[in-house]
TrEMBL record, chain A:
Subcellular localization, as worded in the UniProt entry: Cell membrane
Ranges that cross the membrane: 20-43, 55-75, 81-100, 182-203
Family designation: Belongs to the binding-protein-dependent transport system permease family.
Organism classification: Bacteria, Bacillati, Bacillota, Bacilli, Lactobacillales
Source organism of this protein record: Oenococcus oeni AWRIB429
One Gene Ontology term from the biological process aspect of the record: amino acid transport
Top-level taxon of origin: Bacteria
Name of the protein described by the UniProt record: ABC transmembrane type-1 domain-containing protein
PANTHER family linked: GLUTAMINE ABC TRANSPORTER PERMEASE PROTEIN GLNM-RELATED (PTHR30614:SF7), MEMBRANE COMPONENT OF AMINO ACID ABC TRANSPORTER (PTHR30614)
Length: 214, 287, 222
């Protein structure tokens, strides 16, 4: 295992970078997009509600593999995008649907009384949302958002299917050239755990802390 | 009282769990040791009365799934059937051919794991592979080439040796390793199968698709806007693969190969699969 | 757009449609068996972690966390390619079922532990004061309430499971996505229509599941 790691160390390290980069970009983009669709779900406009609902249902119910393939093979006919970009866009859209649900649940739990209070104090509905509701909603949603990020890192292994250069892609290539599948998979497994396991324990810690505060 | 009891249960079951894990690891490594012991493939197929062949299901002309019957069909599959008939005759034991679908990415691992006895799956005989598996004599002479869009101006692999070019291949195939020698500056993308690779070429993810000419001709047949250029730049003799150190199985297979060439079966199969392929001189493939 | 239109009629011949629907059967089969397996193991593991049994709970929790934080794709490859090294030969179908069950059990264990924790401790104490043992309290008071809370996340986990069966194309399981690949191997013009058809089939399957989840939710609330 050590010899396989050292002889392919550069490949694994670059792949680790790609996995991390894809995950971070997708995290930021999907949080923005997810919040947008969460808001669209609660604004008093039937059209906006329906659009948001449709978006969320479509991306929640189709496998990530299919979404990524669609971007890699179809969308690229209109706008040129490579495997890494297609994979990251797919990850973003897929994850944003889950984040939209999480944020919406957060907004709902803030409570109608606060909205009414804020409006009575002369805040516009946009101000109420931005200053009063969203900060609280995010606080409530933090543990689930953290879990979404862990899922995102794991799901980034989908890049392997579109030659995205990530850890899983590299593991397959190393396994195919060295014929040592056992150690290749163990090594990338450890690389994934380096990202996900600390996050996992940090989220659990936050969860208990928030619970203690409540 | 209850707390002490819980503690006791916890300690005891933790110890049991630890012992189970240790036992598991120890017996697993013992089993692994035992399994890595040599098993003679020829003896096994005679004993079981069947040969489990790995073949492809996504490669036109060589191994493509017939969606009506659910069975793969192609030159490789027919060779496997003919060899099985011939091997039955040689051993005196009636044997049947069983087919398992493999991809370039899974075939060697499946063979090493003895999920299959051998594979006939457009596999090139290479010195690297011969270190880990055994090959029969070559049953088909292919060569690596490139497929490009008509009118792209690319005439051979040399035109792709620059940092702007991207070449598409299939993961686990010899061609993605080879192409780096002939166009070291180009970027190489390895996709899951030929369907995806072809779709990626059409989508403009790369300028050329590289693999063995036989497979490329198959892809060119259905995509008139694309053409094979520059001839072959490597020699890719396909072999029947078996696990490491199987001299008897290899010897019997070579004998069977000779027999099906001698009795005309081989040339009949070449004609059956390659006669209609545009741009390919199927007569040159006959033996 | 004409590339999409070109393949759409030729791709879906009677044989190809039959073949693809057969793949749907395998997708559903793998899903159902894995769901049952992971519900059983997941509850078991979840309860062990929740019960805070000295040593054991922490021990099981660490193993659970390690597996849960790996990509499922990696576990699938591992089960299929590495178990045979110790002489366990699994057909692709069962390798997928086992990998999915192992992975989804750990995900469900976490949901179940969370659901149990969400019930205030006061209720266990209350049950104790009316003479129930801890086990009785768990069975009669905590579990029914916790299950109510857990059902929506469990169902969305199951939807994930159905979607994740598509990852088994990596080890050549002849499920829906793989069969789609076989169809477009006939002619690469079929690639895009096939992907669209796959998206629609998965959507119907999973949206159906989420409608069931919502119906459950309503009934529970009523």
């Amino acid at each position: 295992m050590i010899s396989l790691l050292t002889s392919n160390f550069h490949s694994f390290l670059v792949a680790f970078g790609y996995t991390l980069l894809s995950s971070i970009i997708a995290l930021i983009a999907s949080t923005v997009l997810g919040t947008l669709f969460a808001i669209l779900q609660i604004v008093p406009s039937k059209t906006a509600n329906v659009i948001a609902r449709a978006y969320i249902e479509v991306f929640r119910n189709i496998p990530l593999l299919i979404i990524v393939m669609f971007f890699y093979l179809v969308v690229t006919k209109i706008v040129k995008i490579g495997g890494f970009t297609a994979g990251t866009i797919g990850l973003t859209l897929y994850t944003s649907a889950f984040i939209a649900e999480t944020v919406r649940a957060g907004i709902n739990s803030v409570g109608i009384g606060q909205t009414e209070g804020a409006r009575a104090n002369g805040l516009s509905s946009w101000q109420t949302l931005r200053i009063i509701i969203l900060p609280q909603a995010f606080k409530i949603a933090i543990p689930s958002l953290g879990n979404q990020f862990i899922n995102l890192v794991k799901n980034s292994s989908i890049l392997a299917f579109v030659a995205g250069g990530d850890l899983m892609y590299t593991a397959n290539n190393v396994a195919a050239t060295t014929f040592d599948s056992f150690n290749s998979y163990i090594i990338v497994g450890i690389f994934y755990l380096i990202i996900t396991l600390p996050l996992n324990y940090y989220m659990k810690f936050l969860e208990t802390k928030l619970k203690g505060m409540a | 009282m209850e707390k002490a009891k819980k503690r006791k249960i916890g300690i005891i079951s933790s110890i049991i769990l630890t012992l189970l894990i240790i036992f598991g690891v120890v017996s697993a490594s013992a089993l692994a040791e035992n399994n890595s012991k040599h098993v003679d493939t020829w003896e096994r197929v005679k004993r079981l009365g069947k040969i489990r062949w790995g073949v492809k299901a996504d490669t036109k002309l060589f191994g493509l799934m017939d969606t009506k019957t659910g069975q793969p069909e192609g030159f490789d599959v027919d060779i496997a059937k003919a060899l099985t008939v011939q091997l039955s005759k040689q051993s005196g034991v009636p044997m049947q051919a069983d087919f398992t679908i493999v991809t370039s990415n899974t075939r060697i691992q499946l063979l090493k794991n003895a999920n299959i006895d051998g594979f006939i799956a457009t596999a090139t005989i290479t010195p690297e592979r011969e270190k880990v598996i055994d090959f029969s004599n070559s049953y088909f002479k292919a060569g690596q080439s490139i497929l490009v869009k008509k009118g792209s101006g690319i005439k051979s692999i040399k035109d792709l040796n620059n940092f702007k070019s991207t070449i598409i291949g299939v993961a686990g195939s010899n061609s993605v390793i080879n192409v780096k020698k002939f166009a070291p500056k180009a970027k190489v993308l390895a996709l899951g199968d030929y369907g995806q690779a072809m779709a990626a070429l059409k989508a403009g993810q790369g300028q050329a698709l590289t693999t063995d000419n036989g497979i490329l001709y198959g892809l060119a047949t259905e995509n008139p806007g694309y053409t094979v250029v520059g001839g072959t730049f490597t020699s890719e003799p396909y072999g029947v693969a078996f696990d490491n150190n199987q001299p008897e199985m290899v010897k019997q297979t070579n004998k069977a190969l000779k027999a099906i060439i001698a009795n005309g079966t081989y040339n009949k199969l070449i004609k059956k699969w390659f006669r209609g392929v545009p741009g390919l001189d199927w007569r040159s493939l006959e033996k | 757009m004409n590339i999409i239109a070109a393949g759409i009629f030729d791709a879906f011949t009677k044989n190809n449609v039959h073949y693809l629907l057969g793949g749907l059967g395998i997708t559903v089969g793998v899903s159902i068996i894995s769901v049952i397996g992971s519900l059983i193991f997941g509850s078991f593991i979840g309860i062990i972690i929740y019960e805070k049994i000295p040593f054991l709970s922490r021990y099981v929790s660490i193993i659970n966390d390690v597996i849960r934080n790996l990509p499922l794709l990696l576990i699938i490859f591992f089960v299929y390619f590495v178990l045979p090294v110790i002489g366990i030969y699994l057909p692709v179908f069962w390798a997928t079922v086992i990998a999915m069950t192992v992975f989804e059990s750990t995900m469900l264990a976490e949901i179940i532990r969370g659901g149990l924790l969400a019930i205030p401790i006061g209720q266990t104490e209350g049950a104790g004061s009316v003479g129930m043992t801890n086990q009785q309290a768990l069975l009669n008071i905590i579990l029914p309430q916790a299950i109510k809370k857990m059902i929506p996340p469990i169902i969305s986990q199951l939807i994930s499971l159905v979607k994740d069966t598509s990852l088994a194309v990596g080890i050549v399981l002849a499920e829906m996505t793989f069969r789609g690949q076989i169809i477009y191997a006939q002619n690469s013009n079929y690639t895009i229509p096939v992907f669209i058809a796959l998206a629609i089939m998965y959507f119907i399957l999973n949206y159906g599941l989420s409608l069931i989840a919502r119906w459950f939710d309503h009934r529970m609330a009523a």
